[in-house]
Amino acid sequence: MSNRIRKVSGSSQTKAVRNRIENKGHKEHSQPIFVTSSFEFDSAEEMRAAFADENDNNIYSRFSNPNADELVARMCALENTPAGFATASGMAAVFASVMALCKSGDHIISCSSVFGSTHTLFTKFFPRWGITTSYFDASRPEQIEKLLTPNTRMVFVETPTNPGLDVIDLEWLGKFCSNHNLILNVDNCFATPVLQKPADYGATLVTHSATKFIDGQGRVLGGLVLGREDLIKEVYLFCRSSGPAISPFNAWVLSKSLETLEVRMERHSSSALRLAEWLEFRNDLSRVIYPFLKGHPQFEIAKRQMRAGGGVVSFELNGDAKRGARFLDALSLCSLTANLGDTRTIASHPASTTHAKLTEEERLKVGITSGLVRISVGLEDPADIIADIENALNKSK
Length: 397
Ligand SMILES: Cc1ncc(COP(=O)(O)O)c(C=O)c1O
Fold this sequence. Notes:
Layout: E1 5-6, H1 12-18, E2 20-21, H2 44-51, H3 66-79, E3 83-87, H4 90-99, E4 107-111, H5 116-125, E5 132-136, H6 144-147, E6 152-158, H7 170-179, E7 183-187, H8 192-195, E8 205-209, E9 223-227, H9 229-242, H10 248-258, H11 261-280, E10 285-289, H12 299-305, E11 312-317, H13 323-330, E12 335-336, E13 346-348, H14 360-365, E14 372-376, H15 382-395
Parallel strand pairs: 4-5, 4-6, 6-7, 7-8, 12-13
Antiparallel strand pairs: 1-2, 3-9, 8-9, 10-11, 11-14, 13-14
Helix pairs in contact: 1-3, 3-10, 13-15
The chain binds pyridoxal-5'-phosphate.
């Protein structure tokens, strides 16, 4: 974790634009990409000291790289966290955050509605290393109390959840975890630090799939684990040995993306709210879910802890089980692709794609019915997004 970042003072937004790798003498205005596996030393002594952590020289890009450091510094400024590590994907971040900090016999409490691959890690892989997980309904976090055991080490949540958009009260949860000395690990992928800063409510770790809104243009994969210094030290040591480091190119793309994150999130959110409000007036949908709709069960909590509702709207189609497929096939502007948080609007059907590995019972428990559609609202003119969805809804009846 090199400290060779030129840091500016100002708001977190200013830091996300201006904190940067030191200029290297060419007076380049845009930061270069450090495509190098390793870094040179001037002497044997300097090299020894680097390996002994007596200086902050970069050694090897599996450990640290200037582009990764810049991405981490900007994300730390945005999330109000003291330290972080950047990984090759969001799943590598989730995996590292657990593997580095939990051991055999430890217990995790997670909300049941988490991203499909996260759920697979918790239910299929972590038990092989003796780490077990109990689930609570994200709309009823008070259930956590009953799940607590003497071995509970971590509480893991997404808020808003994917794709059900449940919102968990972070203030309450932060206090609960602090009172019970638990690591609170919040996947902040949907809100991004522009809309919500979990560390301000006591989250000790904040994980990210940077592949989503942080990139924002559907180009590269990346992830981050951010948080308390002592915890990140363990994550760093685990990653340094196990090797999920982000590539310099991906770190460069993501760091540049942070310069526009705030304006993008404002537009994603205003267009998503406009779509959600429009969908509410249709009579062929059984549910429209968006955190900033007054009818959302946790609307008050969302208003308190989020600056805006985010870029994802979910809704449930009335009709037969095949209507979801007919709706997706009738879209012409929106993309059908396995991503979200892009400039381009994306429609997806979680039951047959991202959450297909869950059993039907598990899916229904977290509200993923066969009619549920998730829209990641992009940066096109919102009138055109609505027109495409209106056309597909009418055609698919
Ligand atoms: C909430 C959430 N967390 C984690 C991930 C995993 O991220 P990645 O695809 O970058 O590994 C995703 C991916 O969709 C996600 O939606």
